[in-house]
Amino acid sequence: MNPLHPKKLLLTKWTAVKPVSRNKHFLVSKVIAPEPPELVIEWVELEAVYSKAVTRINWRELRDETLWRQGWV
Question: Which pLDDT does position 28 carry in this prediction?
Answer without folding.
Answer: 98
